[in-house]
Amino acid sequence: MSGKTALGVFVYLFAVLFAFGCTTVAQTPSPVPYPRAPDLPFVHMDGTTTTLEDYAGKSVLVVNFWGLRCQNCIEEMPFLKELHDRYSPEGLVILGINTDGVPADLLKRFLPQLPVSLNYSLVVDPDFALADGYKMTAAPLTVLIARDSTVRYRHEGYDPSNEAEYVRIIEELLDQ
C-alpha cells in the first residue's frame, strides 16, 4: 500500500469514527430489573397459609429466616419486633421463618425460652422449601420485598450496624 493510499484510508477511518463519535442518540435509562421473590406458601404457626400474592400491592415484607440455635438470629429479634411496632400500621409485614425443621407444635414449646416475646408472624418450614426457595446459605437471612413482590434487599447475618440501612430501605419501600 502506498503512502498516499494509507493516508487516505486513515483520513477516511478518522472521519467515519469522528462522525459516529459525535452523533448523539437519546437514551432513556432502563429500569433496574429486580428479581421476583419466590411465590411459595408461608405456613404460619396457627396453621394458616399465605402466599406472596396475598401481600402483593398491599404490604412490604421483611422475610427473616432464623433458628433457635442461632445466636445472631436471637439478637436480631428485638430489632425486628421494633420494626413491626413502628411500621406495621404503614403496611410492613414481618414473616419470621423458622429454619429448625420442626413442626409448629414443637416450636411453640421453645418460644417461651426466647429473650423477647415476638409480635410478628412466625412461619414454620419443616421441609426447608422456603429456605431452599430463597437460597438461604446462612442464618439469619433477611429479605426485603416490595409491594410489587420484587426482592429489593437481601442480607445474611446480623450486625446492629446494618439496622439503619434496613430502616432506610423499608421507609423507601413504604413510600412507594
Tell me about this structure.
By secondary structure, this protein is an alpha/beta fold. It has a single domain (34-175), classed as Glutaredoxin. It is built from 6 helices and 7 strands; from the N terminus they run H-E-E-H-E-H-E-H-E-H-E-E-H. It has helices spanning 3-22, 52-55, 71-87, 104-110, 129-133, 163-175, and strands at residues 42-44, 49-50, 60-66, 92-98, 121-124, 141-145, 151-156. The protein has a 7-stranded mixed beta sheet. Strand 6 (141-145) and strand 7 form a beta hairpin. The model is unreliable at 6-30 (pLDDT under 50).
Averaged pLDDT: 86
Strand numbers in spatial order across the main sheet = 2-1-5-4-3-6-7
Please report the number of helical segments. Answer: 6
CATH class: Alpha Beta
Number of domain modules? 1
CATH homologous superfamily heading: Glutaredoxin
Helix content: 25-40%
Question: Regions with pLDDT < 50 over 5+ consecutive residues?
Answer: 6-30
Q: Compute the gyration radius: what is it?
A: 25 Å
Shape field: globular
Report the portion of residues in β strands.
Answer: 15-25%
Largest sheet: 7 strands, mixed
In N-to-C order, the SSE pattern is HEEHEHEHEHEEH
- Structural class category: alpha/beta
In the CATH hierarchy, the third-tier topology is known as Glutaredoxin
- Second rung of CATH, namely the architecture: 3-Layer(aba) Sandwich
Number of strands: 7
Question: How far is it from the N-terminal to the C-terminal residue, by CA?
Answer: 64 Å
